[in-house]
Amino acid sequence: MTGLGTLVRLALRRNRWFLLAWVLGLAVIAPATATAYETVVGGLAGAGALDVMAANPTMRAMLGPPTDLGTPGGFTVWRVGTFIAAAAGVMAVLGVVRVTRADEEEGRTELIRSGVVGRHAPLTAGVLVALLGCLVLGALVSAGMAAVGEPVPGSLAFGLGVALVSAVFVGVGAVAAQVTSAGRAARGLGLAVLLAAYLLRGIADAGPEGSVRRDLAWASPLQWMALVRPYADERWAVLLLPAGLTALLVGGAFVLESRRDHGSGLWSVRPGRDRAAEGLLSPSGLAWRLQRGTVIGWLVGLSVFALGMGSLSGSFGQMLEDLPQLEAVFRRLGQGAEQLVDAFFVAMLGIVAVLVGIVGVQLWQRLSTEEHRGHAELLLAAAVPRTRLALSHLVLAALASTAVLVVFAALLATPEALDRGDAGVVLQTVGAALALAPGGLLVLGLAVLLHGLLPRLAWLVWVVVGWSLFMVWVGSVLGLPEWLARLTPWHALPALPVEEMGWAPVLVTTGLTLALMAAGVWGYRRRDLRLP
């Protein structure tokens, strides 16, 4: 492991802001939720309402299994614990891939190996830095929960659960980096495994009590933190599961690295056609060819999620019949909806609209990647104007993200439409999704503006996306001031069918989006290319 210390310091230096943003952003969620417990829950815990809500299949599928909802710590683990663990898993996958496979793809690893370093030193450094981020996050979660007055053993179990579950996905990312030949493919494979774990957990948790289906939750790493039962007679032995799986995956990654050639993955890259397809003769066709895997991956993942959540939407009615005290709570979560199913659809669309904003930004920023690798320069050296190149990626990002949102809305409402025998439910939900679409396009417009005029500040768009996701997932639980909720691109848009259609905010948002996009494309035409 010659040179390991130097490589660890280098990885920390290059990824300090990435890790800092993720760790601090996730660490504050748990203690903030715990401090808002009395405000959010009120007298529901004493009335047994929380227990009824936690037993609902849909709530269990979304949030995970409950432990002790009568305490702030137990409620926090149920309400945001699974979200924090899943988000930390995303951090782990992205963090380890960017230091391993992405650097190898860019040629940095080859340059480093030309010096005196051990064969496995680069991978070891990437894994150690990613594990350090997970451990620091776990420590901050434990310290934050203890600082707000929660029991130390439960806080320690909560933090260790988050740290070790996210460490599992460090191993997943490390294995994906050996299997694939490109950074995008490694990230896609790692996140696909995480999504599969989340879906398995949701399907299992929605099963009947005592059924074999419920026991399947043990097969999902994302469930192991909750199965430790923080703040409710902790089961410390469960922590051996993520610790053991992490060791197995990381060890497997080193074995796989020793069996592959540098620059390649275990999955061989198929040779291309001897003649280019007709679609590759235009910048738009090339953009689609580069991005189709990303689009299809998001489309399939959110479609499965939509069908799973939609099939459980009818269970809310039975829950209200069992305990009407919950009605006011869900009216608030659904922005005052009269029908509980409408409240559920409004809440789900609000979350997925932000995720679709991520889709648009991710697709657009492929242009930045092409520019950095020198591929854009090759295209522009031919008879391809800069405006046409930029629009090829911009149009794809706008259309694909909107289409993904529409498909999600249609599939989300399909089970309810079949149950009612009324196709109008699908049309109504699709209309609600389209009313929220300008928010995602506004985020895309900001990304275009930054890329065209201030490319070194392109990361700011992820601050907007991260804040929006935080507000839509836990903002209502924390009872934050209204003016903070307004600081998201989606807040002013009408939440159909709860609110009446308001064309003014839709048109204003759309107009601002077009202005940002036009300014960004104009700036891209005039500035110098950012070369490697």
From TrEMBL:
The chain crosses the membrane at residues 77-100, 121-148, 154-176, 188-204, 236-256, 295-320, 340-364, 394-413, 425-450, 457-481, 501-524. Keywords: Membrane, Transmembrane, Transmembrane helix. The keyword Secreted does not apply. It comes from the Bacteria. This is ABC-2 type transport system permease protein. It comes from Ornithinimicrobium cerasi.
